[in-house]
Design brief:
It contains 8 helices and 6 strands, in the order αββααβααββααβα. The chain is an alpha/beta fold.
Amino acid sequence: METTEQKVRHILKLQFADEEIEFDHDLGTPLLGRIVSEKFEGLDHEARHKMIWTPLRALLTREERRGILSFLAYTPAELKFYAEAFDGPPREKLSVAAMKTIEQKVNDTLKLQFTDEEIRFDDDPGEIISGVIVSEKFWDMEFKARQELIRNLLHAHLTPEERRQVLGFQAFTPEEQAARSEFAFAHPD
């Protein structure tokens, strides 16, 4: 019998090449995946995730979909920039207490720039730090400029070791976040 990961990979291979699909096994379950594809060029976050989730919703059961945490969707150029901006992916495993300390430092740092905006951290087992920032400051800013703003802030206040624990933050305007929420409401599991 196919595992959920095998089934998800099989479905996504209909849309993307196998080498573009990766799963993070450090977190165990639920599945966290990354798709790096030229097909995302020029598409916003919502359109990218629609490409991913439309076939998954059609071909997976509700229970199987619950086993998927998230997919990160990048073009090759975005991934290259992102990896350089955040000193590569986090790999050093730290204690929960150490990660909580770094997460608090990241939160304090982000609040220097995003005082009135919404900063949310993703719920995870404490091995990586990621989240979403919703800010009016992102108006008229491209993906790269938004990430540079966040990266420069974190680089100024975190050590290289601490930065390696930061997977990254999605950056949206309030209107983009509202559209994401509306899409999720209209397309429940």
